[in-house]
């Protein structure tokens, strides 16, 4: 094991709530059974490569602040290996089962496409060895189709079809790399698939281009026999003013319109949900209800501003509601919780990366326990069943079946139907959630 994180000599262990060791899990106990399944298998936690190892901690006003020595030589394969050694040391010490990466996170861009592809292939082989040795798996791979200047006007939605082709080549290679490493999913986040101004944009054409791109990706997935799930990651804006994959509902409508709904699911990011003006809970419920729930990018925004700040999750309240839906919906399937999280720029010590992940993972673990309690207690589900009971009765079935506007009017006119408003019981439902949050142990 490399010793980049020498200040954390031992793997992080579960020590329980009584422990005051900041480098120990207080709630996350990988082997603890929750509804007969290990916590680790419920949560399927992944560390993301880009924010933790490929980002220097810069922002638009200032340079990098983090201690990431490999970033001094961005073109060197030796530096890429040094970065990967540190990343796997981190995964192993954190004890999490998965990671996620973009092609450009692990392998430097070359002077030609061929050189970039060869760098990727070298680093994919190296990753394969490290994964084998560490017992760490790939939750998903993805191609970076947003950083290089060629993608400034989009990848699939670029006005230039040659840029579309370049992006297609990049995804082909990265999809194959993901398959080679046994990835459980492949993600497409449309970072610049949107517009800056309508004045220079042909919106209708760009939608067709995006659908064509997604069709080609799905075709290639079947051609090579990749059995992971294809995921689209919705986000409403940033970096572009408007992104086409705005939220789960827009993505769902788009997939339906182009006949792609059987090929793609969504990777929901907490901070993207709130940027879209939704709650994370809403996004998860929408996706599950419409059969497109795939995976989660765990993080949180700063609720005072409107950026994608990608902070580490720390709200049990927020995550419990989503986990409740995920548990009731049958779990994560091939998905997981990818920590798409960034340290704050002032968190300059190497150990800060552990503190961020440990806190976020404990928060998720606690939310899982709350969710299990809410499911087994059944009060919330019972309230919903009772609220809609009329639709399961004879009259409700008739409305959904053979009723006409005239036959319904007749029943109302005759006085046979005369509904009375009833309580929605929101406060009682909220109290049920809080009781579960306060009582889990
Ligand atoms: C950016 C996205 C990105 C994707 C992967 O906002 O969250 O990190 O998860 O391209
Ligand atoms: Ni993300
Ligand atoms: Ni994001």
Features:
441 residues; globular; binds D-xylose; eight-stranded parallel β-barrel; binds nickel (II) ion; two-stranded parallel ribbon; 46% helix; alpha/beta
Average pLDDT rating: 97
What is the 3D shape? globular
Number of strands: 14
CATH class term of the largest domain: Alpha Beta
Task: Identify the CATH homologous superfamily of the largest domain.
Answer: Divalent-metal-dependent TIM barrel enzymes
What is the CATH architecture descriptor of the largest domain? Alpha-Beta Barrel
Largest sheet: 8 strands, parallel, barrel
> What is the helical fraction, as a range of percent?
40-55%
Instruction: Count helical runs.
Output: 17
Q: Name the poorly predicted regions.
A: none
Rg value: 24 Å
Strand order of the largest sheet: 5-6-7-8-10-12-13-14
Strand percentage, roughly?
Answer: 5-15%
